[in-house]
Amino acid sequence: MKSISIKQLSVSFGAVTVLHDVDLEIAAGECFGLVGESGSGKSTVLRCASLLNATWSGKIEIDGKDIRTMSIQERCRTMQMVFQDPYGSLHPRHSIRSALELGLIVNKVDDRETKMAQAMRDVGLPVEFLDRYPHQLSGGQRQRVAIARALVLEPHLLLLDEPTSALDVSVQAEVLNLLVRLREEKGLTYLMVSHDLAVVDHMCGRFAIMQHGRIAEVLPREAILDGSARDPYARELIAASIEYERAI
Amino acid sequence: MEPILDVHNLAVHYRGAPNPAVGGVSFQLGRERLGIVGESGSGKSTVGRALLKLLDTADVTADRMRFEDIDLLNASEKQMLSVRGKRISMILQDPKFSLNPTQRCGDQISEAYLTHFRSSRAEAKTRALEMLEQVHIRDPERVYNLYPHEVSGGMGQRIMIAMMLLTDPALVIADEPTSALDVTIRLQVLRILDGLVREKGIGLIMISHDLNLVRNFCDKVLIMYAGRVVETLAARDLDNAQHPYSRGLLAAQPRLGGARTPLPVLERQDSWLEPDGAHP
């Protein structure tokens, strides 16, 4: 189990600053949520942590080690990301096998067949599906493949960027159950972005509410219902979510 | 109450597809709010589009498909031009894609009026400004002259609503009107739409995957699965839905403050695909 700590993370695109001194401490084995309106910078935090966006200032450490000092292999085997849209994140002309295997080849991992078969079993897909193409799978199955692709390198930390918002509720339930089970079995740490507070409530112990590139407030799960949020925007977001669920 | 829309046994078959996308859909709509819910691929949007005859790659059949005094099934394209946007209008999911990026928002609203009524540009503009005010836009003159990229998602969707209600339609089809919006403004937009629909006595078909939404903003709900209606019920009885599919959808939804036990997963059964929507 590994912890992640984000200190003074700031990002600017030209003259526009999209993240202002974001500080987050996520304990080993925790599931931490990031919520906020679109454009608030929640996905940008994940893109910085995974170095998909490398132009930022501040410090990100995993178990006390600066991610900028890690080699690509070490970083990729510590931390993996799952994207929002399973229709967009899998290459349509690559079989599931090649999607999973490429990460193993690049990171010079041996015994690839066993690792891939294990990853497929972990996410509850038949091993034969390795020879299928994305268009032969449903949305939920594709998201399982995306999770398997992240797990095949045996990371300690998963960055989940709206992992279920492109899915139907019935399929979302399957994927959320899968993520809960995997975290328990493998002792993973999750940093999960979501716009749905009910999903965060179901999954996470603590969460941060973001607005305009800043952390408005970090709250425990219980704060959703007990009204202990202090920040005005956090209160508004929680109230709107509760009202939306129980309106009229 | 005389229904404004009467659909009986509607079926839609995309050419080249082995099975019909929609089959055996029947419902009547008065000046009330009907929700159509289901998963992606259940045919709910196809029903909305079939009503407006927007499916030129599909064969649409029905025993009856009447809107007021118009037989939609046999209406000519010319007739449909005077129905679409005037008598029946449609609000789409994402204003980013449904507004023309190269035209000012106000001009697009006026255009809806000019297309369907003989009037001067000045009158159309006055009407558009009035309508912007009705969708709670504070400074209509300013917003009239903005381009779509200069407005937020919530404002864009209110502009869409203004455009669609300006011609005083009898029926509005809203296809996932708030799915692209943040939760903090979703309710605001829904309340504006709901208020106007009630005030003007417009029939509303709300197409959504979101059970919470139809529960709160509809009178009646059709639940669709694989192109068929499996259950029809009053929105207030949604919690007492009988069909295992409806119950499965409701149970799979995580709730604020809910127990953290694994979410119940929908067990699909082949019997749901039978024509009568048979269930125990």
Overall description:
- The complex is a heterodimer of chains A (248) and B (280).
- Chain A is of the alpha/beta class.
- Chain A has a single domain, classed as P-loop containing nucleotide triphosphate hydrolases (Rossmann fold), CATH 3.40.50.
- Helices cover 38% and strands 25% of the residues of chain A.
- In chain A, strands 6-7-8-3-9-10 form a six-stranded mixed sheet, sandwiched between helices.
- In chain A, strand 4 and strand 5 form a beta hairpin.
- In chain A, helix 5 runs parallel beside helix 6.
- The N and C termini of chain A lie far apart (44 Å).
- Chain B is of the alpha/beta class.
- Helix content of chain B is 34%, strand content 22%.
- Chain B is built from ten helices and eleven strands.
- In chain B, the strands form two sheets. In chain B, strands 7-8-9-3-10-11 form a six-stranded mixed sheet, sandwiched between helices. In chain B, strands 1, 2, 4, 5 and 6 form a five-stranded antiparallel sheet that branches.
- In chain B, helix 4 crosses helix 5, helix 4 runs parallel beside helix 7 and helix 5 crosses helix 7.
- Chain B is globular.
- Chains A and B meet through helix 6, helix 7 and helix 9 of A and helix 8, helix 9 and helix 10 of B.
Tags for this entry?
heterodimer, A: 248 residues, alpha/beta, Rossmann fold, six-stranded mixed beta sheet, B: 280 residues, 22% strand
